[in-house]
Design brief:
Elements (H helix, E strand, L loop, with lengths): L5 E5 L7 H13 L5 E7 H7 L3 H15 L6 E7 L13 E5 L10 H11 L19 H29 L5 E5 L9 H14 L3 E5 L16 H22 L6 E5 L8 H10 L4 E4 L4 H12 L1 H16 L1 H5 L16 H5 L3 H8 L10 H8 L2 H6 L2 H9 L1 H22 L2
Parallel strand pairs: 1-2, 1-8, 2-3, 3-4, 4-5, 5-6, 6-7, 7-8
Helix pairs in contact: 1-3, 1-17, 4-5, 5-6, 6-7, 7-8, 8-17, 9-10, 9-13, 9-17
């Protein structure tokens, strides 16, 4: 199973927007760019919403049938480990191995020494043409990389082999994620992480490193775009060299776990992948749920009432809702609108505060972040919320399609 050059994480919390998202991908295809969809939903999200991986597979299959999608599509077991992978085995054909929690845990000293010994011959890869931030790597540097990352990579190998034993090596796509680590990976660290993955026999097709800057949920990138641009391009060069050096899959590509909506980075990503004819996987499904709320607000009546109710209850439960996401959100509570104020808002006022349009003075990124993590409130509404989605399907679908195509696909994959 070979993942195509361009792929994008789609899907949504409640499994209703797949067809609208495929509509955006079909628009891209009509403009000459094929981007394959990857439905992704994590164990954490399933636990909060009360769904199962089988539900995600069913939502994907139904959307593909409804839209007449003819290209490949995938269902991702997102951010899994050995403790929770088994429930995804039957329904998924894409597995994101999350080993960030194992970074910094020490492998055995003999294993680290063996790693350094086997990798020393590759120190000559640096300096690498085009990579300015890492000009030389010593055995001491290699020892530090081994101590920091080897155990995590061994864990990736254990997860991979567990999946392969049940599905067969060539029947799934593997992504390895270190994006939720505390520190970004340097080009040299990425190179030797890939070397260790090859040694473990992991046929990794996408790698999601930790980049410089902050990738907070649902809002734009916080950091230096210039620094990210240089880092991203260097990572592309490192991957290309690692593929040749370690006989990794030829389609190995960077995965950007964006937290969604890193609009300021999209132009530099586009230029880099076009310059190097590189692939890209963009994981950006999370804000689809916010487009549902915008659509409900725009529908007015009970739809607007439901959107307001989600905010009021989220405001009252902010500590509980934010805790699972505390490392990837930054909410200034003083800038959250008072619930009574929101209860008096019109459809436009609610939609404009939530919609990610930074040119609109009504946009409130703190309001947006709280609602991003507030989907548990909607899940607890059960059939009431799901019926609202059905009743407002047309206006929600229009928002979902336009958001995915205009704000994400255009700048990254089309360059417009």
């Amino acid at each position: 199973m070979i993942l195509e050059q361009y792929s994008i994480g789609i899907g949504d919390r409640f499994g209703h927007q797949g067809a609208a998202q495929l509509c955006a991908l079909q628009q891209a295809e009509r403009q000459g760019v094929t981007i394959v969809p990857v439905w992704n939903k994590s164990f954490r999200e399933h636990s909060i919403v009360g769904t199962s991986p089988t539900d995600t597979r069913l939502a994907a299959d139904n959307a593909v049938k409804e839209r007449g999608w003819k290209n490949s599509y995938y269902v991702d077991a997102d951010h899994i480990g050995l403790k929770n992978v088994d429930c995804f085995i039957d329904s998924s054909n894409f597995f994101t191995l999350d080993v960030a929690d194992y970074i910094g845990k020490a492998a055995g000293e003999k294993e680290i020494d063996a790693f350094v010994g086997s990798m020393s011959k590759y120190l000559s890869a640096f300096p690498m043409p085009g990579v300015r931030t890492t000009t030389r790597v010593t055995e001491e540097d290699l020892l530090a990389i081994g101590r920091k990352y080897l155990y995590a990579i061994q864990e990736a190998g254990r997860i991979y082999r567990h999946i392969a034993a049940q599905k067969g090596v060539d029947h799934f796509v593997t992504e390895v994620s270190t994006d939720e680590a505390n520190e970004p990976q340097s080009p040299a660290q990425l190179f030797f992480i890939l070397a260790a993955l090859a040694h473990e026999g992991v046929k990794v097709q996408t790698i999601a490193p930790k980049f410089t800057g902050r990738f907070l949920k649902g809002i734009d990138y916080v950091g230096s775009v210039e620094t990210f641009s240089a880092e991203f391009e260097e990572d592309l060069l490192v991957i290309a060299h690692a593929v040749k050096t370690f006989d990794l899959p030829k389609n190995l590509k960077l995965s950007v776990h964006s937290g969604s909506d890193k609009f300021s980075l999209y132009p530099v990503i586009h230029r880099a992948i076009k310059k190097h004819n590189a692939g890209l996987h963009l994981k950006t499904a999370g804000t689809t749920w916010l487009e549902e709320l915008i659509g409900l607000a725009m529908a007015g009546g009970t739809g607007l009432d439901t959107a307001k109710e989600v905010y009021v209850k989220s405001y009252g439960r902010i500590d509980e809702l934010c805790k699972p996401y505390e490392t990837v959100i930054d909410i200034d509570r003083a800038k959250l609108p008072d619930p009574q104020t929101v209860m008096a808002w019109t459809s436009d006022e609610y939609a404009n505060a939530l919609r990610h349009n930074q040119k609109d003075p009504r946009y409130n990124l703190h309001f947006r972040q709280l609602l991003h993590v507030g989907y548990k409130v909607a899940a607890e509404m059960g059939d009431k919320y799901l019926q609202m989605l059905k009743d407002s399907r047309e206006i929600i679908g229009k928002n979902v399609t336009e958001n995915l195509f205009d704000r994400h696909i255009r700048p990254i994959f089309l360059g417009t």
